[in-house]
Design a protein that fits this description.
The protein contains 17 helices and 12 strands. By secondary structure, it is an alpha/beta fold. The protein has a domain of about 230 residues: Rossmann fold (3-Layer(aba) Sandwich), CATH 3.40.50.10540. The strands form 3 sheets. A 7-stranded mixed β-sheet has the order 6-5-4-1-2-3-12, sandwiched between helices. Strand 7 and strand 8 form a beta hairpin. It is an enzyme of class 2 (transferase).
C-alpha cells in the first residue's frame, strides 16, 4: 500500500499546478477524486504542443493519473448536495479558483470546515487570496517575469529569457504537495484540520532563496552581461558553449586545469577571482573561443581528465535514452484504454517500504461518477435523478 492509502483527496483544480499537486498525492496512494465540470476540466481542451490524443490529450494525461473522475455541476443544488456529502468524508480539498469563485460555489474554507473540521483545505492562487494583485491572472510566464528570475538570463540590453518549462506551475505544485503533507502530519498529531494557502508568486520567489539573499543581504545588484552567462551571481566561465558538433555546459572550472584542457595557456595567467568577476565577459569570450575548436566528446574527455565540472547539453531525445535515466526508473510505462502505450515521468521520490504506484491512467470525463456517488451513499435512483436534472455527467465524453 502507498503511504497515503486510505486518504481521500477532492481535486477541484484546473490547468497544471493544482492537478500536478493532486497527482503526487495519488501517486502515494491517496484516492484522488477529480471533481470537474460535466464538459470536462479546462486542460482537457487545451493540449500543450497541439497533441490532442484520441480521447484524452497529452497535457491532461500527464497530470491526472491515479485519479477518478466525477463530472458534476457545482452550480446546481444537486451538485452542491454531492459536494457536501463528499467533503464530510474527505481528507484533503484542493482548489485553484480565481479569488471569490470558491465562495460563490459554496466550497470556500469557511463553509467546508464547518462540514468537516478535520479537512485539509489547500487553496492555490496566483498572487495571494487578497492584496493589490489578487485579481491578476496567475499564469506561468507572467509569474516568471514578475519574480525577477528572467532578469538573470540573457544578454544585457536584450529581452530576458523565460525558462523552457512551465517552471512556476511545477514549483507551485510541489509547494502545495508539501503543504498538504505537512498539514496531514499535523492532523495526525492533533486531530486539527486547517487551511493551507499557496500562491505562485511566493513559490517562485522563495525558490530563489540564494540569489535574492545575495541581493537583499549582500547588496550585490542583479546585472546581466554582454556574454550569455548562465547566472548573474556566479563567476565566469559559467554557461553553455558551442563545440564543433554541439554544445557543452561548463561550471566554475579552475583556470589552470582549464588552460591545460583547452590548450589555451593565457587562461592560466588570469586570476580566477578578479577575472571571473570583474572581467566576466572577456573571460567568457576567451573560453568560448577555445571550446569552439573541439568536438563535444573530445572536449568533455579533456575537461574530465582535469577534474573540471562539465557535461553534455541534451535534448529530450538524449535525456530519455540516457542509461542513468533507465537505471533510475525515471519514466513509467503503461497501456491506457484509449490512448494506447504511455511513457511518462513517474514519481521522483523512492520509499523503501511504501513505494509510489501507478493504479490507473488519467480518467475520461465522468468515468467514475456512479462509483464515487455510490460509495458516498447515493442510491441508484438518486444518481439517476441527479443525471436527469443535469447535475452530473455519468459517462465518458
Amino acid at each position: 500500500m502507498g503511504i497515503l492509502d486510505g486518504y481521500t483527496v477532492l481535486d477541484c483544480s484546473i490547468a497544471m499546478a493544482g492537478p500536478f499537486a493532486a497527482q503526487r498525492l495519488g501517486d502515494l496512494g491517496a484516492d484522488v477524486i477529480k471533481v470537474e465540470p460535466i464538459t470536462g476540466e479546462w486542460q482537457r481542451h487545451a493540449p500543450a504542443g497541439g497533441i490532442t490524443g484520441n480521447k484524452i490529450n497529452v497535457s491532461f494525461l500527464s497530470l491526472n493519473r491515479n485519479k477518478r473522475s466525477l463530472a458534476v455541476d457545482l452550480k446546481t443544488e444537486g451538485g452542491k448536495q454531492i459536494m457536501r456529502k463528499l467533503v464530510a468524508k474527505a481528507d484533503v480539498f484542493i482548489q485553484n479558483y480565481r479569488a471569490g469563485v470558491a465562495g460563490r460555489l459554496g466550497v470556500d474554507y469557511e463553509t467546508l470546515s464547518v462540514i468537516n473540521p478535520g479537512l485539509i483545505y489547500v487553496s492555490m492562487t496566483g498572487y495571494g487570496e487578497d492584496g493589490p494583485h489578487a485579481q491578476r491572472p496567475g499564469q506561468d510566464l507572467l509569474l516568471q517575469a514578475m519574480s525577477g528570475a528572467m532578469m538573470s538570463t540573457g544578454r544585457k540590453g536584450e529581452p530576458p529569457q523565460a525558462a523552457g518549462q512551465y517552471l512556476v506551475d511545477a514549483v507551485t505544485a510541489y509547494t502545495a504537495f508539501e503543504g498538504a503533507l505537512a498539514a496531514l502530519l499535523h492532523r495526525e498529531r492533533t486531530g486539527e484540520g486547517q487551511k493551507v494557502e499557496v500562491n505562485m508568486l511566493d513559490a517562485i520567489t522563495t525558490l530563489q532563496m540564494q540569489e535574492l539573499s545575495v541581493f537583499t543581504v549582500g547588496g550585490k545588484p542583479q546585472e546581466r552581461s554582454d556574454e550569455l552567462h548562465a547566472h548573474v551571481y556566479i563567476r565566469a566561465p559559467y554557461g553553455t558553449f558551442a563545440t564543433t558538433d554541439g554544445y557543452i555546459a561548463l561550471a566554475m572550472p579552475n583556470f589552470s586545469g582549464l588552460a591545460h584542457a583547452l590548450e589555451t595557456p593565457a587562461l592560466a595567467e588570469l586570476d580566477e577571482k578578479t577575472a571571473g568577476w570583474d572581467e566576466r565577459d572577456a573571460t567568457f569570450a576567451m573560453v568560448r573561443d577555445a571550446i569552439a575548436k573541439f568536438a563535444t566528446k573530445d572536449c568533455l574527455a579533456r575537461l574530465d581528465a582535469e577534474g573540471i565540472w562539465a557535461g553534455p547539453v541534451y535534448g529530450y531525445a538524449e535525456l530519455v535514452a540516457d542509461p542513468q535515466i533507465a537505471h533510475n526508473g525515471t519514466f513509467i510505462e503503461y497501456d491506457h484504454p484509449t490512448e494506447g502505450h504511455v511513457k511518462t515521468p513517474g514519481f521522483p521520490i523512492k520509499f523503501s517500504r511504501t513505494p509510489s504506484e501507478l493504479r490507473r491512467g488519467a480518467p475520461l470525463t465522468g468515468e467514475h461518477t456512479d462509483d464515487i456517488l455510490g460509495a458516498a451513499g447515493f442510491s441508484n435512483e438518486e444518481i439517476a435523478a441527479l443525471a436527469e436534472t443535469g447535475a452530473i455527467g455519468r459517462g465518458p465524453l
